[in-house]
Write a structure and sequence with these properties.
The complex is a heterodimer of chains A (about 450) and B (about 475).
Chain A lengths: L2 H17 L5 E3 L2 H12 L11 E5 L26 H8 L3 E6 L33 H8 L5 E6 L5 H7 L2 E4 L19 E6 L2 H11 L28 E5 L9 H16 L3 E5 L7 H16 L19 H12 L2 H13 L6 H23 L4 E5 L15 H5 L6 H6 L3 E9 L2 E8 L5 H14 L8
Helix pairs in contact in A: 1-2, 8-10, 8-11
Chain B lengths: L3 E11 L24 H4 L10 H13 L3 E2 L2 E2 L1 E5 L9 E5 L5 E10 L3 E14 L3 E3 L8 E3 L6 E7 L6 H17 L12 E10 L10 E6 L2 H20 L7 E6 L4 E7 L9 E2 L6 E2 L2 H9 L5 H12 L3 H7 L3 H12 L4 H19 L6 H12 L5 H13 L5 H7 L8 H14 L1 H8 L6 H11 L6 H11 L2
Parallel strand pairs in B: 12-13
Antiparallel strand pairs in B: 1-10, 1-11, 2-6, 3-16, 4-5, 4-15, 6-7, 7-10, 8-9, 11-12, 13-14
Classes of the chains: A alpha/beta (about 450), B alpha+beta (about 475).
């Protein structure tokens, strides 16, 4: 099948998804898809991702389509350069298919905070797809594209992957260049992948990973290899951190985890209980570190150089800042900028930011200790509940933040982790999370491939 | 009762790199607005900084030249504030873990003789852009060519005790940094900028008074003037029984006055925190040692060496070493065989004049040595040699002797010719001859002058004197 034929079929599916009111795309066009297909068809060697259509979360910059980050403040903004990840995917033969809807500046866990409307869950429009990469997750789950890029700061790919029943892979921090990923929390941000299968996700991750001279936080290591799925998990010790299996875990999620454990056991792995005592501080720590970095990262949206400029009363530069930012940022973004500004302020820095950094180090130490104690991988639920209803948590930011309770700590520790569907509860997907030691991304993918082969991902759990 | 003035300076120097601190854009001065820009220095969404290794090397050299300890680990931090010339809404700087700390600069204070001033710290940062207020009527334009230019900020201890001492410190600091090749230190092009902190107290008082900060100082002379104005203002305040408020002031060079820019209460909380885009800057001790070994001879050491090796007077040594290029030229002239003091006289005179005009040395050391030899051999007079020098500066290929001949400046020492001119002069001034013979021996100068005049400057004055002495008995 030629890339042009794939592009036409992709356009048809994108149009259908839009028509169905999924609201998962922010920008795509047949002509851009055709141009991508022509480029790929002209590539003599094809490439490892030849003719694979990929959707991009709208915080990854491309030259031919706007990059809005789901925000009014970047409405109509077109980047003069491509993100490193996009360049690498293009060279591998992939086609950039669409820009996907997202929570504004990736701040949210339900994709209800997009300035361009909420994304609907592909299986139940009354529910959320998770977030902040909800548009990318929904497009993969709806079968529009086989893979999509999202971004993680504190679980924004794994959590929607779990809600939507697809694979979501967050690599180790530093394995994929952030150059061209619009910054939110720079010490946490990772371009991450959604795939229908572990292999699809692994191939995309492999093609875009590796050191980038434009991002000094990338690791000087070769790209993530695409591992062969293991035939079994014999000889592997898999840790179950007890803090991630609370008594009040949603029964559907708990049942899904029983199925996952059963699968892992049948594959020959040994299951052992471990403890990550500091993970309970992950959400509050995250909500200091990420907003602090975000407050600085979002200062550049001032209406001076690009984006819509608004001028408030007085007409001076202060009035430009106030009106541009006051009208351009939505309430959740403003809330986090205020929190971030506060925790870095003179007199509060030690009590908040410095303390959070210390706690972050402790959280990471817990993981190191667990792995050093002879555990090869960790297995946990990805989310405390299946996909929740739209509007259920929008009035209560803290309840929304707690949707990321099982994914946040891993981001703070910079570790690789993925979510894989392990069953359904009342029709809604349940995801299990596999966590690996730093830079053992391949081990995690290989094990997930084995689980994927045996687990009845689309069947109801009891 | 007198007042003691306490001054500390913050000096920003532009590091002499081809490209910016965190991107590959050129640092050329004077290019059309917004032409040396890219996603990184424009602060576009998704762009990231990448440290410039050459800037780090130059800052390290600067720190070592100032006797600082260069740290094997330092941290880039974000300094947050909104301003239209600051594309990211924060400046990448260094805060609690700077590149270097604890140096010192020794120099001659106009009031206190030899003193040492402590260097608190040297850190690396990026510059902001420039606001242009006179380009579009009623509007402000932003030029981001400067944004991201690498700077070193050098903070002194409050060890300076007068405005003139502050100026002397700056002259020395600039000399060191130029010697070390760290910066051009051109105030005209903004590659050296000074903020001054000043307070007053009673002599013997151990505590510091409340300080004010004076900004917008565009020359060393203005640093001195501004500090004098601010010192007077503070003394007047305190002597009226008022208190000095901690304010930031701007100096107006036209009026010679300072005026308040903002008070401490309105001052920024910059909310510094480590920049998560940049890992800590780690420098190997071996690399730092290499940089130390690669430092050129600094002005202090060179001055001392010239005094010792060539027996130069202290004044000459200081002038000749005021700039690296001048000192290099001086040493090559000496190397070409010119007696050191004679070489110093030339370098401090005509050579310095042409260097200040042209910024180069158009008369190579060998040609200058040739010219000096002509004077020594009596072929041209010292006066004539200065004319030959000027001509040589514009005639790159010609030899001194040829120029002297072309200009008819070769001295006549032929006894017969000299005797002829002498006879004419003595015949024309019988009265003076009589007075000379009567004991007015100072008239010798008059006769020599007359002979020189008659010979149109070509006569060898020493020969003339000998002939005159013979004829006048």
């Amino acid at each position: 099948m030629t890339a042009s034929a794939v592009a036409r079929a992709t356009a048809t599916r994108l149009a259908a998804a839009d028509a169905a009111g999924l609201n998962a795309t922010l920008h795509w066009s047949e002509s851009l898809l055709e141009a991508e297909a022509a480029r790929v068809d002209a590539m003599p060697a094809g490439g490892p991702l030849a003719a694979m259509p990929i959707a991009l979360k709208d915080n990854i910059v491309t030259i031919e389509a706007p990059t809005t980050c789901g925000s009014r403040i970047l409405e109509g903004y077109v980047s003069p350069y491509d993100a490193t990840a996009v360049q690498r995917l293009r060279s591998a033969g992939a086609m950039m298919a669409a820009k996907a809807n997202m929570d504004e500046f990736a701040m949210g866990s339900s994709t209800e905070h997009s300035a361009f409307g909420r994304v609907k869950h592909p299986m139940d429009p009354s529910r959320v797809p998770g977030g902040s990469s909800g548009g990318s997750a929904a497009l993969v789950a709806a079968g529009v594209v086989p893979a999509a890029l999202g971004s993680e700061t504190g679980g924004s790919v794994r959590q929607p992957a779990s809600f939507c029943g697809v694979v979501g892979v967050k690599p180790s921090y530093g394995r994929v260049s952030r150059f061209g990923l619009v910054a939110f929390g720079s010490s946490l941000d990772c371009i991450s992948v959604f795939g229908r299968t572990v292999d699809d996700a692994a191939r995309v991750l492999s093609a875009m990973s590796g050191h980038d001279p434009l991002d000094s936080t990338t690791l000087d290591r070769p790209p993530v290899a695409v591992p062969r799925a293991l035939p079994d998990l014999k000889g592997l010790r898999i840790g179950l951190p007890r803090e991630y299996f609370p008594a009040d875990l949603h029964p559907g999620v708990a049942a899904g985890m029983e199925r996952a454990k059963q699968a892992v056991r049948e594959l020959g792995a040994e299951l052992v209980e471990v403890s990550l005592p500091n993970s309970k501080f992950a959400v509050p720590t995250y909500y200091i570190v990420a907003p602090a970095e975000a407050a600085a990262n979002l200062a550049r949206y001032d209406g001076v150089r690009y984006g819509p400029r608004k001028v408030g009363p007085g007409g001076d530069i202060r009035a430009v800042y106030q009106a541009t930012r006051g009208e351009g940022f939505g309430p959740e973004v403003q809330r986090r900028i205020l929190v971030g500004t506060y925790v870095l302020s003179a007199g509060y820095y030690d009590a908040y930011y410095r303390k959070a950094q210390r706690t972050r180090a402790r959280i990471a130490d817990d993981f190191r200790r667990a792995f050093a104690g002879g555990v090869d991988l960790l297995l946990t639920p990805t989310t405390p509940t299946p996909a929740f209803r739209a509007g259920e948590k929008t009035e209560d930011p803290v309840s929304m933040y707690l949707a990321d309770i099982f994914v946040c700590a891993i981001s703070l520790a910079g570790l690789p982790a993925l979510s894989i569907p392990v069953g359904r509860s009342e029709g809604l997907p349940i995801g299990a999370q596999i966590i690996a030691p730093f830079c053992e991304d391949e081990r995690m993918l290989a094990a997930a491939g084995a689980v994927e082969r045996v687990v009845a991902a689309t069947e109801e759990v009891r | 009762m007198p007042w003691e003035t306490v001054v500390g300076l913050e000096v920003h120097v532009q590091l002499r790199t081809r490209t910016k601190m965190f991107c590959g854009c050129r640092t050329t001065f004077g290019d059309p607005p917004n032409t040396n820009v890219c996603p990184t220095c424009l602060g576009l969404p998704g762009a990231l900084p990448m440290p410039n290794a050459e800037a780090i090397r130059l800052a390290t050299r600067g720190a070592l030249a100032l006797g600082c300890e260069v740290h094997t680990a330092s941290v880039f931090a974000r300094k947050n504030y909104f301003y239209p010339d600051l594309p990211k809404g924060y400046q990448i700087s260094q805060f609690d873990q700077p590149l270097a700390t604890g140096g010192r600069v020794a120099f001659d204070s106009p009031e206190r003789g030899r003193i040492e001033v402590g260097i608190t710290r040297l850190h690396v940062e990026e510059d902001a852009g420039k606001l242009v207020h006179d380009r579009f009527p009623g509007k402000t334009a932003v030029d981001l060519n400067r944004a991201g230019t690498p700077l070193a900020e050098i903070v002194s201890e409050p060890d300076l005790r007068s405005p003139s001492e502050a100026r002397a410190y700056l002259v020395t600091l600039r000399q060191i940094l130029v010697y070390a090749g760290v910066s051009d230190c051109s105030m005209e092009q903004g590659s050296l900028r000074v903020d001054a902190n000043i307070s007053i107290r009673r002599p013997g008082e151990p505590r510091l008074g409340t300080k004010t900060e004076v900004k917008n100082l565009n020359s060393f002379a203005n640093v001195e003037r501004a500090l004098e104005a601010e010192r007077e203002r503070q003394i007047a305040l305190v002597e009226r029984g008022e208190r000095v408020a901690q304010v930031t002031l701007l100096f107006n060079a036209g009026s010679g006055q300072v005026r308040a820019l903002r008070s401490k209460e309105e001052s920024h909380d910059y909310r510094y925190f480590p920049d998560p885009d940049l890992p800590p800057l780690v420098l190997a001790p071996e690399w730092i040692a290499e940089q130390r070994a690669a430092l050129p001879e600094l002005p202090e050491a060179r001055r001392a060496r010239l005094e010792l090796a060539y027996g130069l007077p202290a004044y000459d040594a200081r002038v000749v070493t005021s700039e690296v290029a001048l000192a290099d030229y001086y040493e090559s002239v000496v190397g070409a065989g010119v007696e050191p003091k004679t070489a110093a006289n030339w370098v401090m005179g005509d050579v310095m004049t042409t260097y200040n005009e042209l910024g180069t040395f158009p008369v190579e050391a060998e040609r200058l040595a040739g010219l000096v030899a002509l004077v020594r051999e009596g072929v041209v007079s010292h006066q004539a040699a200065k004319r030959v020098y000027t001509e040589l500066a514009h005639a790159p290929a010609e030899e001194p002797k040829a120029v002297a001949e072309r200009l008819g400046l070769v001295q006549v020492s032929d006894q017969g010719a000299l005797a002829g001119w002498v006879d004419e002069v003595l015949a024309a001034h019988p009265a003076e001859v009589t007075r000379y013979k009567g004991g007015e021996s100072k008239l010798m100068g008059f006769f020599v002058g007359q002979v020189m005049k008659r010979s149109k400057g070509k006569a060898d004055p020493k020969g003339v004197q000998l002939v005159l002495q013979g004829k006048l008995g």
